[in-house]
Amino acid sequence: MHIAKSILAGSFFLILSFTGVAQERLEETVNAVIQPLMKQQDIAGMAVAITHNGQRQFFNYGVASKDTRKPVTDQTLFEVGSISKTFTATLGAYAQAQGKLQLSDPAGRYAPQLNGAALANTRLLDLATYTAGGLPLQFPDDADHADRMFSYYKSWKPLYPTGTQRLYSNPSIGLFGHLAARALGQSFDDVMEQTLMPGLGLKHSYVRVPQDQSGRYAQGYAKDGKPVRVGPGALDSEAYGVKTSSADLIRFVEANLRPQKLEEALKQAIATTHMGFYRVGGMTQGLGWEFYPAPFTVDDLLAGNTPQMALTPQKVEPLNPPRPAPDGSWINKTGSTNGFGAYAALVSGKDLGIVMLANKNYPIEERIKAAHKILAALERQ
Q1: What mean pLDDT, rounded, does the chain reach?
Q2: Among 292, 281, 88, 121, which residue's Cα sits nearest to residue 192?
Q3: Are β-strands 165-166 and 314-315 bridged in parallel, bridged antiparallel, or unpaired?
Q4: φ and ψ at 144, to 5 degrees?
Q5: Residue at 41 is within a domain
Q6: CA atoms within 13 A on the CB side of 139
Q7: Catalytic site residue 168?
Q8: Is residue 13 scored above 50 in pLDDT?
Q9: Mean pLDDT of 3-25
Q10: Mutual orientation of helices 84-97 and 264-273 as an angle, nearest 10°?
Q11: Does residue 166 form part of some domain?
Q12: Which of 219, 225, 321, 351 is most buried per CB count within 10 Å?
């Protein structure tokens, strides 16, 4: 069944085969959450997708560009910022499943440029989980270029013993992704776009949007309302570079919920990304993903996504051996660039997930509350 309705300045599309009553209830719930949120945060356009029991539902609001007034659809490309890290983590886990690396390997095995550096003996796992000893959130300006990043890594000195503190870091997981691609014998962009994304069933997801797809690329808007898109930087593709649609991102969520139909190496990779390696307060750090075992509250989710969690070191408790996310866990990742805000979440073992894409970077707290409210209402139906 296909239902199309015009709403506000944009359009709304709902594709599902639920009963009419369930459709109507879900439509009312999503509208009641998203429309006030967009107004409150002055968001030009949003795409929301939900998967439940194998069925996808798409809700599209507003415009992809204030200039062209082109409506958002489920094919509109958004920058997803740090949700890219879940793709990078999956690539690293895929390389392990292919026998090309082990997460326990030292970084120096794949980067001779690190010879003599403290990072040479750091495990790939600790790069991927932000526990390498205090690598910062961003590269310093003078190192934020592909030609200079290894000079920065070689001179960098740990602030803490490896595996004791989590400090969220683009240079940390970015290096992990870069080395995973090296282990696979390709550039990161190529192996991501030509191997991983197609293997996951993604049709229109990119780290470099091709010219013939530029018309689908939403315009982002900064807090002051000015148009902005993400710029180049060292390991930008690996840390925050994915551009995708709600149609593709919900497929990625479904691959995480139901990996059984994937080829074996990808199935193993998904399972690895759902392993908990460190406990950080109430949050468990997986590979790219972060999760909260049931029972959890929305306050637990908010506590794990505060600015303090992203900007300051947090003491970690290693999980030996690593443990898979239990059924009922809320598995999530936020992502932001200067002009976009994204959120993806799934509930393990319940075949339930949501993605929310916006062409403005609005508060993470609001994303989590909105997603939790929608999925909680859907679960009650």
Answers
A1: 93
A2: 88
A3: antiparallel
A4: -80, 60
A5: yes
A6: 25
A7: yes
A8: no
A9: 45
A10: 130
A11: no
A12: 219
Inform me whether the pLDDT recorded for 8 exceeds 50: no
Q: Would you state the pLDDT for residue 21?
A: 53
Strands 275-280 and 283-285, by their bridges, are antiparallel
Residue 119, in any domain of the structure: no
Please give the residue that has the higher pLDDT: either 5 or 370.
370
Give 4's Cβ-side CA count (13 Å radius): 5
Domain count, the chain: 1
| Torsion angle, alpha carbons of 16, 367, 306, 232, to 10 | 90
In contact, 293 and 283? CB cutoff 8 Å = no
| DSSP assigned state of 242 | -
Tell me the sheet residues that pair with 165: 315
Give the gyration radius of the chain's Cα atoms.
Answer: 20
Return d(Cα 14, Cα 35) in angstroms, integer: 15
For the stretch 309-331, pLDDT in tens is: 999 999 999 999 999 999 999 99
Q: What is the pLDDT of residue 380?
A: 76
From 168, 217, 292, 343, the catalytic residue? 168
Measured distance CA(133)–CA(126) in Å, rounded: 8
Q: Is 214 a catalytic residue?
A: no
Q: Which residue has the higher pLDDT, 256 or 10?
A: 256
Contacts of residue 61, defined as CB under 8 A and 6 or more positions apart, other chains included, come to: 7, 8, 10, 11, 12, 34, 35, 38, 45, 46, 47, 48, 72
pLDDT of residue 139: 98
CATH of residue 296: 3.40.710.10
Tokens coding 340: 């976009």
- The active-site residue, picked from 82, 205, 246, 336, is 82
Please give the residue range of the domain that contains residue 203: 2-86+189-380
In terms of Cα–Cα distance, which of 98, 340, 56, 129 is closest to 196?
98
Q: Are 240 and 231 in contact (CB under 8 A)?
A: no
Using pLDDT thresholds of 50, 70 and 90, give the confidence band for residue 379. Answer: confident
**Which residue shows structure tokens 């996951």?**
200
Q: 147 lies in a domain?
A: no
Name the residue among 262, 322, 260, 313 with its Cα closest to residue 289.
322
In this predicted structure, the answer to whether residue 114 has a pLDDT above a threshold of 50 is yes
Give the 3-state secondary structure of residue 296. coil
What is the per-residue pLDDT for 16?
38
Amino acid at 293: P
Indicate whether 344 pLDDT > 80: yes
